[in-house]
Inverse folding.
């Protein structure tokens, strides 16, 4: 993100990176913290709330506690999954494939990109209106008077492809299609008419995964007293998702702010003006430096053995600076770690920076480890031989980490780098 900003002509000192759910949290706080608001209690000092940012691709969740001075403290590391609104779109396309045929839909989506986009735009509009009063729905004329329908416009190119595969349908203004479960879908001219319950079923998988994950979070001892849920993001505008969450957490206060789909955008502006509103975060990963340690043949694999200056070392060791789930106060220096040169004539020392998805990684080559960058500190004076090294420390500021290396013999010789704080 920072590289993209630099390419766009934005200097580092003019760029602040905001985490999406945090930005949304600030927007909600600004919108709902008026004393006269019925939701004011959600933002009283020492109150705790869960924010669910249900976007198109992902659902991101954070939990905040309001401090006495109005700032926010994170109670649980940012988390979530790919259960956003586009997962419903995928379910819709699979459903169409099941009634039209995989070959028809594949050819349509491959050759008719514009029409595919038009179809999905219409579905997106209807997706947000299901269960609301203004949905484009009708009444069944011959049997069940209470059946509701969802009408979706179908591009002419899709009907042409279908009729090419099924010539008997070519001259018919309307015909019925059968779903795998035996239900009927009417195709009338340029419209498909679905029973509303068929479209609602497309939400089931996404809603279940979101709610199950929220239940797991509320079972944690540190989150059991969270009393409010804030629902934001484009997918949060879906009445189906709203009703599912309200129904699943009837003992919680579920708050859906005005312009929920714009909460991240508007909150990012607020964060830019007051980036210090978030004063404490929970580390989503373990952070550290790749280093060499004395080789111990009883615990270290032979493949990791290297020899420096006649001494056996174990390479790629993950030296932990910050562990996953640790609470990090913004701007607070973490514990310094000392590192030494490996050779007496070494003229620089390099510190590869890593993060890991596990709490106690042993080696930086393990699955889940990711290289974030490196620091290189010049040490041209080799007169002290092996008696040279540097102290390295990390500072978590805002949404980024500043890693600094200081020459142990000359504190004026330093090198720093800023890397993304991945939650």
């Amino acid at each position: 993100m920072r590289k993209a900003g630099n390419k766009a002509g934005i200097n580092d000192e003019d760029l602040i990176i905001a985490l999406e759910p945090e930005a949304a949290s600030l927007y909600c706080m600004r919108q709902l913290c008026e004393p006269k608001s019925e939701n004011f209690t959600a933002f009283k000092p020492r109150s705790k709330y869960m924010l669910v940012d249900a976007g198109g691709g992902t659902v991101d969740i954070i939990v905040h506690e309001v401090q006495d001075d109005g700032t926010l403290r994170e109670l649980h590391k940012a988390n979530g999954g790919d259960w956003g609104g586009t997962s419903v779109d995928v379910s819709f396309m699979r459903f169409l494939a099941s009634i039209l045929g995989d070959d028809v839909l594949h050819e349509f989506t491959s050759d008719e990109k514009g029409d595919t986009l038009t179809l999905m735009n219409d579905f997106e509009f209807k997706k947000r209106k299901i269960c609301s009063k203004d949905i484009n729905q009708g009444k069944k004329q011959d049997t069940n008077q209470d059946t509701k329908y969802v009408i979706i416009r179908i591009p002419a190119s899709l009907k042409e492809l279908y009729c090419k595969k099924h010539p008997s349908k070519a001259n018919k203004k309307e015909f019925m299609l059968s779903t795998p479960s035996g239900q009927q879908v009417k195709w009338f001219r340029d419209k498909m008419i679905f029973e509303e319950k068929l479209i609602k079923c497309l939400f089931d998988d996404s809603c279940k995964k979101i709610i199950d994950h929220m239940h797991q979070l509320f079972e944690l001892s540190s989150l059991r007293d969270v009393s409010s849920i804030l629902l934001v993001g484009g997918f949060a505008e879906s009445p189906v998702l709203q009703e599912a969450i309200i129904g699943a957490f009837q003992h919680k206060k579920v708050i859906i702010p005005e312009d929920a789909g714009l909460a991240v955008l508007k909150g990012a502006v607020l964060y830019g003006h007051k980036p210090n509103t978030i004063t404490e975060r929970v580390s989503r990963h373990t952070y550290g430096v790749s280093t060499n340690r004395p080789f111990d043949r009883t615990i270290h694999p032979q493949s990791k053995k290297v020899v420096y200056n006649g001494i056996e070392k174990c390479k790629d060791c993950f030296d932990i600076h910050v562990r996953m789930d640790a609470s990090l106060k913004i701007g607070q220096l973490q514990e310094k770690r000392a590192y030494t040169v490996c050779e007496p004539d070494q003229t620089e020392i390099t510190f590869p920076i890593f993060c890991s998805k596990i709490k106690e990684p042993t080696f930086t080559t393990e699955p889940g480890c990711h290289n974030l960058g490196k620091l290189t500190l010049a040490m041209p004076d080799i007169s002290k031989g092996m008696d040279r090294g540097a102290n390295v420390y990390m500072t978590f500021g805002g949404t980024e980490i500043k890693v600094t290396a200081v020459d142990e013999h000359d504190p004026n010789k330093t090198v720093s780098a800023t890397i993304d704080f991945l939650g």
In short: The chain has ten helices and 20 strands. Residues 286-420 form a domain with the Substrate Binding Domain Of DNAk; Chain A, domain 1 fold (CATH 2.60.34.10).
